[in-house]
Structures are given as structure tokens and as C-alpha cells.
Amino acid sequence: MGETTMIQWWLYVIGDTLMWARLRELDAGTADVLDCDGRTLVYENIDTARAALLDADYRSFDGLDEADAEAWGLSLEALDPPEAKDDDALAPKMVQALPRR
User: In which band, very low, low, confident or very high, does the pLDDT at 100 lie, cut at 50, 70 and 90?
Assistant: First the structure.
């Protein structure tokens, strides 16, 4: 696999559960998504990967504003994408329980 040229985080909220997806654009022009199930899905390009995330009702974390977050019952300031040393450690952090409202 090639070098990563860009990383974007996407999120989806259903009920009291926050699901993350990590989108990476690779230097070869392909893209991959680490989804909330811990699977890595490979796409021919970044636009196809973004379209797949949008079709699954994910929203780009970078494009999220306070009003969007509030509509989901979230505080934008309290949201941080998960972090880990590698994908195996990151996978279980891709789904997070939200505090009850």
C-alpha cells in the first residue's frame, strides 16, 4: 500500500452511539476507509470513497459545525476522533457510546 497523503474523519450518530470512519487518500490516487466495524474498504479514488460514506449517512467531521453537532445531541468541543498506534488498536475505538441525554 502507498503512502497516505490525506486523512479525514467521518462520523454517524444513531441513538446513543457514535460511529467513526477514517478516510485516507493514498499517493497512488486510491483511497481506503476504516469503518466502524474495523474493516478496511478500498476504493479506486477519494471521490468514490466519499460518496460511499455519504450514502451510508456519515458526515465529514471537518465540515461539522456546532448546529450540526447539536442536532445530534453532541457538543462539538467534546468530539475528538479516536487515536491509536495502529489500525488493530484503533478498530475497537471506532464505535463509542454517548452519554444519555
Answer: low
